[in-house]
């Protein structure tokens, strides 16, 4: 599914029973991904209490995850991954470009969310002036725009390699080395540094508010909980995507089996399904919003319904 291709052994046929069970499982995975992210998007759009800059970034992330469930999952199920590892037709290029756009957008959104959390925790007095709706909209547009440019770069590199066959060193470097560095390793390194800084500041704040008044302490605790939740989102993202990118990096030194590659590829895609469950588990207001949507109570209430 991913544009980072690996030279693999000859394909073997899989029994129809196994394929059927696999398609059922992946179909359920796709359905859960779509429904879960729809709940997040509807919750934030419907309830006015959730209309905050931080949540707009979460909406952008949920939209990317939703599109993974709608587009990438079905496309990857319609034609097996092995097909596009051996045949580089138009369908495979389209699927790769969609995949790159959504993957890079997810990473970019997580970067923006980490910046938002940095100002919320480390510079709370200037947070509202520096992170407002306008700034967040610019962040979202940049995330999707940069991802689109990356996808275009991948397609151009692949087309050039097909034309010149052997003398495409620069395109190979772009696709095999620079692409994963700029689309994954560098953004993730930046996010880890930001969250480390946030953790250290939060630790100092926790010690300094021990004798503070209760309302002030409550606000700080809410910010710390939000940061912890979003750090877990990043951790889950790394758990899902890091094995795949490491697999791609190590394949330059030797072959990687089809089964390992496909397994890690679907593990990476499953990240789009997990994020809504993280929000529901750690945010009581998301749980309340989810319950109201699933039970149909939103059709009886109004957008000012209290969630917390």
TrEMBL record:
InterPro entries registered for this protein in UniProt: GPCR_2-like_7TM, GPCR_Rhodpsn, GPCR_Rhodpsn_7TM, TAAR
Membrane topology: Multi-pass membrane protein
Transmembrane residue ranges: 21-46, 66-86, 135-157, 177-200, 230-254, 266-286
Matching Pfam families: 7tm_1 (PF00001)
Domain G-protein coupled receptors family 1 profile: 36-279
SMART domains reported for this sequence: 7TM_GPCR_Srsx
Location in the cell: Cell membrane
One Gene Ontology term of the molecular function aspect: trace-amine receptor activity
Cellular component, GO annotation: plasma membrane
Keywords of this entry: Cell membrane, G-protein coupled receptor, Membrane, Receptor, Transducer, Transmembrane, Transmembrane helix
An individual GO BP term: cell surface receptor signaling pathway
Record domain G-protein coupled receptors family 2 profile: where: 22-287
Family: Belongs to the G-protein coupled receptor 1 family.
PANTHER family from the UniProt entry: HISTAMINE RECEPTOR-RELATED G-PROTEIN COUPLED RECEPTOR (PTHR24249), TRACE AMINE-ASSOCIATED RECEPTOR 1 (PTHR24249:SF415)
The protein, known as: Trace amine associated receptor 1
């Amino acid at each position: 599914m991913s544009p980072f291709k690996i030279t693999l052994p000859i394909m073997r046929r899989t029994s129809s029973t196994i394929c059927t069970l696999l398609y059922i499982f992946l179909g359920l995975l796709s359905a859960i991904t779509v429904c879960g992210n729809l709940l997040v998007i509807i919750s934030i759009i419907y309830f006015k209490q959730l209309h905050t800059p931080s949540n707009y970034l979460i909406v952008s992330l949920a939209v990317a995850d939703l599109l993974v469930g709608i587009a990438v999952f079905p496309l990857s199920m319609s034609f097996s991954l092995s097909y596009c590892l051996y045949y580089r037709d138009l369908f495979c290029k389209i699927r790769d470009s969609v995949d790159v756009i959504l993957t890079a957008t997810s990473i970019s959104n997580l970067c923006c969310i980490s910046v938002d959390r940095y100002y919320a925790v480390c510079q709370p007095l200037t947070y509202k002036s520096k992170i407002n709706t306008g700034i967040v909209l610019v962040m979202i547009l940049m995330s999707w725009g940069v991802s689109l440019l990356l996808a275009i770069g991948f397609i151009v590199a692949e087309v050039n390699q097909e034309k010149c066959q052997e003398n495409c060193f620069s395109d190979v470097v772009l696709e095999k080395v620079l692409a994963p560095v700029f689309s994954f390793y560098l953004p993730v390194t930046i996010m880890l540094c930001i969250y480390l800084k946030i953790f250290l500041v939060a630790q100092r704040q926790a010690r300094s508010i021990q004798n503070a008044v209760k309302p002030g302490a409550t606000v700080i605790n809410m910010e710390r909980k939000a940061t912890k939740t979003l750090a877990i989102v990043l951790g889950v993202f790394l758990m899902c995507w890091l094995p795949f990118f490491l697999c791609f990096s190590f394949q330059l030194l030797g072959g990687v089996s089809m089964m390992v590659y496909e397994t890690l590829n679907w593990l990476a895609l499953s990240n789009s399904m997990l994020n809504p469950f993280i929000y529901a588990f750690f945010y009581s207001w998301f749980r309340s919003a989810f319950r109201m949507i699933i039970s149909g109570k939103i059709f009886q209430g109004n957008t000012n319904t209290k969630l917390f």
